[in-house]
Amino acid sequence: MFRNMATSFFQHERIITTDAKAKELRPIAEKLITLGKRGDMHARRQAAAYIRDKKVVQKLFETIALRYKDRPGGYTRIVKLGIRPGDNAPQSVIELVEEELAPKKIGNKPAKKVEKAPAKAVVQPAEEAMAAPESETSEAAPETEVKEETSEPKVD
User: Fold this and answer.
1) Tell me: the pLDDT tens digits for 69-83?
2) Which of 61, 107, 113, 134 has its CA 20 to 30 A from that of 76?
3) Could you give the CA distance from residue 147 to residue 108 in angstroms, rounded to a whole number?
4) Residue 7's closest CA among 59, 67, 51?
5) Cβ contacts of 59 within 8 Å, gap of 6 or more
6) Half-sphere exposure of 92 toward its Cβ, with a 13 Å CA cutoff?
7) How does pLDDT run across 119-129, given as a tens digit for each residue?
């Protein structure tokens, strides 16, 4: 099935299919375009073993591969179309990317200023918490219960 889909895809350069089939076809098409970019006889025979039409193999090696000779990958695009009315299957169009790849600009980027996080509030020791009036403690954290410690030291 994917051999027929790959053949139709390179013949028409765009096909409409289900999401799952489009996602499975993408790596196959990418590998075949990479074979076309290599351009040697062994790559042509490998592509011909997968693609069923000799004219499509010729088109792959002579036009499609030349179009993407400077592109390092990402030759296809999948665009979701919605659902198919008959069976609610999600539809997508898989197509060859047409626009040119713009080279990345390597330049001086302005340094990002990192703001320091505010200092965490200092936790009061237990003795100061005991000395604080209960009204302030209950207003600050009404859900927490303040436990009073006994003056006896704990021995482990």
Assistant:
1) 999 999 999 999 999
2) 107
3) 58
4) 51
5) 10, 11
6) 16
7) 666 666 555 55
